[in-house]
Amino acid sequence: MTEETAFEPSRHGAMPRDLLLVRHGRSEGNVATDAAKGGASSLVEDPGFRERSTMHYRLVAEGRSQATAAGSWIRRWLESEGVGQFDRLYCSPYVRTMETAGLLDLPGAAWRRESLLRERDFGVWEGLGRATIREQFPHAARYKERNRYLYRPTGGESLGDVELRVREVLASLAREMAGQRVLCVTHEDVIWAFRYRLEKVRISEYLAEHSEGAEIPNGSVVHFTRVSADGHVADRFQRVRPVVPGRDEDPAWRQSVRPTDSNVDLLAEVDEHPPLCGDG
C-alpha cells in the first residue's frame, strides 16, 4: 500500500492524478477489417453485416478475454495504490466499449457514458474495406495517403476533429477531477488524440509512427500520471506508459516531455520540402 501524496493545484488547470485510457477489446468490426486488409472482403460486404451500425459491433471471444485481462491488471494497480476504486469512470456509448467496460469488473463501478469518447466517424467510408474504398472513392483514397492525419472522409471526421473532442473531455476533467483517478474506455483514434493533446505529438511524428505500423492494441491501457519518479505530484502529467495486460512485464514509464523547437529546428524541417517555385 502506498501513502497518498498531496497534489499541487495547476496553473494550467488541475488534471487528474492518474488518467487510464483503455481501448476496447477485439470486436466484430476489427475482425472484418483485418480480413479485408488481407484480401478477404466477404464479411465487410455481407448484407447482414453492412446493415448493422458500426456502433453496435460486439466483442469477439478474444476481445472478451482481453477485457478480462485488462480488468485484472487495473484492479491490481488499484490495490498497489491502496485505493478501492476510481473516482470517475467513463465509457464511449458504443456497444463494444460498454461491453469492455462491464467485463473489466471494476469495484464500485458507476459508469458515465460520454459521447465525446465515441469512435471516429468515417462518414461515407463507414464499414467499408480498403479495396472497396479505393474502388469507389479513388481520388479521396489517394488524398488520404498524402496526409492521413488531416484527411476527413465525406460526412466524417479527421483525426484533428477527434482531437477537438478530446480537448473538451480534458477541459471537463480539469474542472471536476483535480488530483483524482479517472479511467476511460474508448477507441484507438481517440486514444491517439489524447496523446496529441497531452504529449504534443507532432503530425510528422504521428505519420512516421503509422508508416511503421504503430497501433494501440485492443484491450491495452495507456496510463498517464502526474506523479514523478520520486513521488512528487507535479502540476502536469509527468509520465506515461502503454500497458498490454497479459505480457510478462509491464513497460517502463516514459517521461512525458512537451517538445519545443528552436529557429534552427523549424527551418531544418522546412528545408525537407524543396520549394516548387524556385526563388521567384
What does this structure look like?
With 280 residues, the protein is α/β, with parallel strands linked by helices. It is built from 11 helices and 7 strands. It has helices at 28-37, 42-45, 47-51, 61-81, 95-104, 130-136, 138-146, 159-176, 188-199, 203-211, 263-270, and strands at 18-23, 88-91, 111-113, 181-186, 221-225, 239-243, 254-255. It has a 7-stranded mixed sheet with strand order 3-2-4-1-5-6-7. β2, α5 (95-104) and β3 form a beta-alpha-beta unit. The protein starts with 17 loop residues before the first strand and ends in a 10-residue tail after the last helix.
Overall pLDDT confidence: 86
Unreliably modeled segments? none
User: Helical element count?
Assistant: 11
Rg (CA only): 20 Å
Q: What is the overall silhouette?
A: globular
Count of DSSP E strands?
Answer: 7
First-to-last CA distance: 68 Å
Fraction of helical residues: 40-55%
Across the major sheet, the strand order is 3-2-4-1-5-6-7
Question: What is the multimeric organization of the chains shown?
Answer: single chain
One letter per element, helices H and strands E, the order comes to EHHHHEHEHHHEHHEEEH
Largest sheet: 7 strands, mixed
Beta fraction of the residues?
A: 5-15%
The structure class reads: alpha/beta
Which features does this protein show?
280 residues; alpha/beta; globular; seven-stranded mixed beta sheet
What's the SSE blueprint?
Blueprint: E1 18-23, H1 28-37, H2 42-45, H3 47-51, H4 61-81, E2 88-91, H5 95-104, E3 111-113, H6 130-136, H7 138-146, H8 159-176, E4 181-186, H9 188-199, H10 203-211, E5 221-225, E6 239-243, E7 254-255, H11 263-270
Helix pairs in contact: 4-5, 6-7, 8-9
